[in-house]
Design a protein that fits this description.
291 residues, mainly beta, nine-stranded mixed β-sheet, 3 helices, 52% strand, globular
Amino acid sequence: MESIIIKNKKILTDIPKDFIFEDHKLTIPKNKQYPEPIKITLQDDNNDSLTIVVSENTSIKIILEVASQDALENNYKLNLIAKENSHVKYLLVSELASEKALLEHYFTAERFASLDLIGGFVSNVIEAKMHVDLVGEGAEVNMRAVAVSSDNHNQTIDVLIVHKAPNTYGNMTNIGIANKQGKIILNGVEKIEKGMKNANAFQTLKGIITSDSAVVEVNPILLIDEYDVKAGHGATIGKIEEDQLYYLQSRGLNRKEAEKLIINGFLQPIIDEIDDEPLRDRFVNLVNSRI
């Protein structure tokens, strides 16, 4: 797996052949199939911006790590553009230590482009906005986002998918896990604009609380201005079922170990996508330290 490190708006490593980086924009060439993931790290960069363009007919998996131990306010504005008939699997891992962080991420899918997006948020305090525009016919997105909060940390995750072309597909699954006095707000909005026939929009939002003081709020919203579409949404909030905990405790685990095992099961689809072993281990350890 090739790695690109960006710090102070400069690349510190070599970039893969035919990649172009200029004016905070990384362009990935067209007509390419990348069998191995590309990892990009924004390292201790406050107030950073980055645009990634995946050119036509290219397939790639990108792991973007946004990491900073700086206690000052962090602001990031990120863009990913998937050109016609490109296929992008994209994993975002946010690990910010500041007490105030804003992460705005915009995605654009052109004609017959597909996006498989995964967001793992284990920052202290963050407001994250994930905005997807399906601008080309046949464009599709599958979005999965997980936020984990503990102590007195507040996280707000806004996911918006807008269907701006016909025959598009959007599906989001957002999970919030809160422990101690942690608070998470999950807003899932999907909009089908007028005239965008045969669009498909689906949402699942789930909140899990592991203490009486934790709070998870989920808000699934569908905005539909067209009749000839398919759409559906659902939301649940609650503690882990007692019978699941009882079964694991009967097998020798204590209650906290049982909770961690069940929650790691929810997170496994994301964990499995982190090809970088140190990042995967750090993500798992951070999650477990919060639950």
